[in-house]
């Protein structure tokens, strides 16, 4: 696993998470992405630059524009890293459900 801290800093920002959600559905140019936000286009471009530097987005030149798409391999890498934590929390919630069910049966 070769995740850099920058990836988590990048996805901590709600605008960047929204951008990732947008481009997950379809590749878009910076202008198309900027239409979804109240921010100025240079601000959106800065977000795109950060996401691309973290390899969360792929930037593909198309004519005079650049189309941004989700870098699926990087997202899968993050998902793989998070998977053990997801299992841990599922186990803990199941244990909590078991305790609450026992308490409910006993009338507590």
UniProtKB/TrEMBL annotation:
Keyword line: DNA-binding, Transcription, Transcription regulation
HTH arsR-type domain boundaries: 1-90
Transcription regulation listed as a keyword: yes
Coiled coil (UniProt feature): none
SMART domains, per database record: HTH_ARSR
Keyword Transcription on entry: yes
UniProt xrefs under Gene3D superfamilies: Winged helix-like DNA-binding domain superfamily/Winged helix DNA-binding domain
Cited InterPro entries: ArsR-like_HTH, HTH_ArsR_DNA-bd_dom, HTH_MetalResp_TranReg, WH-like_DNA-bd_sf, WH_DNA-bd_sf
UniProt GO MF annotations: DNA binding; DNA-binding transcription factor activity
PANTHER family for the chain: TRANSCRIPTIONAL REGULATOR, ARSR FAMILY, TRANSCRIPTIONAL REPRESSOR SDPR
UniProt-recorded name of the protein: Transcriptional regulator
